[in-house]
Amino acid sequence: MSVDLGTAQESAVRRLIARFSWPMLLLLCVMATAYGFAIEHPVVVFNLTYLTLAIVLFYLERTMPFERTWLENDGQTFANIAHTLTSKGLVQGLVTFSGVIGITAYITPMQGEGYGIWPREWPLFIQVIMTLVIAEFGLYWAHRIAHEWPVLWKFHAIHHSVTRLWIVNTGRFHFIDSVFSILLGISLPLALGAPLEAITWLSAITAYIGMLTHCNVDMRFGVLSWVFNTPGLHRWHHSKKISEGNKNYGENLVIWDQVFRTWINPDRRPPANIGIMEKMPAGFIAQLAWPFKQIRSQIKRKDNS
Ligand SMILES: [Zn+2]
Ligand SMILES: [Zn+2]
């Protein structure tokens, strides 16, 4: 009996990568971000880390994909990037605008006075965990309402209309959907007086976990899926079946899914055939207009009946 050592070694390496890549990549990103804060260049280091994560995941998607059919071009790459940039641009604009009207003045650095009941004297990492858990409550409900309320679903359907999962559709959200979810996510920690550092950590971790969540890499998660929103859970969330798709709403953590009983992780392979029942136009501009047209024709139908 002969054993092909090359293949055996390769599959052992693959198994190791599958088991440890998700927590290791997240941990490395968190460590890099902490270093960015330590050298007082958090934004530059965040951007470099995010780019590196994208390159590593892009490579892994090609060498060890979870779903081989998802590697095929779906003609949506331009639309994915255009939605990402529009949403990011608009959110950036909103941040500037809230600075002009004075809202951002409430986000003060750790050293500052602060307001509200936030325990600023506690260690930063505990404050970051608190921010993640509290923001997650708003993010959970923003996401759940976007699935359960037909008007908002029209906007959120843009994200779900893709037929493959990969890192480039991480930021594919209609800008209305993005703004709604960010407003709900950030308002609670903000109202309680979370410091600037904690809010910055929240946005960095959300960006890293978001890209990991959508990656098409063969990974194992085990008990991590009980706490974190892993790609394994999110693949169920992109299912066409309502009973599977209207579950796993968590953005970073799934604790509110656990509390409100929307957490699922069946012991079988999630569907490769993902998407939505509605027909979504292929072009970016048509996709931006689609929810408005849908809502208008629904109102018309109601008026006529
Ligand atoms: Zn969703
Ligand atoms: Zn998604």
Automatic annotation (TrEMBL):
<feature type="domain" description="Fatty acid hydroxylase">
    <location>
        <begin position="129"/>
        <end position="262"/>
    </location>
</feature>
<keyword id="KW-0443">Lipid metabolism</keyword>
<keyword id="KW-0560">Oxidoreductase</keyword>
<dbReference type="GO" id="GO:0016491">
    <property type="term" value="F:oxidoreductase activity"/>
</dbReference>
<feature type="transmembrane region" description="Helical">
    <location>
        <begin position="20"/>
        <end position="38"/>
    </location>
</feature>
<feature type="transmembrane region" description="Helical">
    <location>
        <begin position="90"/>
        <end position="110"/>
    </location>
</feature>
<protein>
    <submittedName>
        <fullName>Sterol desaturase family protein</fullName>
        <ecNumber>1.-.-.-</ecNumber>
    </submittedName>
</protein>
<feature type="transmembrane region" description="Helical">
    <location>
        <begin position="122"/>
        <end position="142"/>
    </location>
</feature>
<keyword id="KW-0472">Membrane</keyword>
<keyword id="KW-1133">Transmembrane helix</keyword>
<dbReference type="InterPro" id="IPR051689">
    <property type="entry name" value="Sterol_desaturase/TMEM195"/>
</dbReference>
<keyword id="KW-0812">Transmembrane</keyword>
<feature type="transmembrane region" description="Helical">
    <location>
        <begin position="173"/>
        <end position="192"/>
    </location>
</feature>
<dbReference type="InterPro" id="IPR006694">
    <property type="entry name" value="Fatty_acid_hydroxylase"/>
</dbReference>
<feature type="transmembrane region" description="Helical">
    <location>
        <begin position="44"/>
        <end position="60"/>
    </location>
</feature>
<dbReference type="Pfam" id="PF04116">
    <property type="entry name" value="FA_hydroxylase"/>
</dbReference>
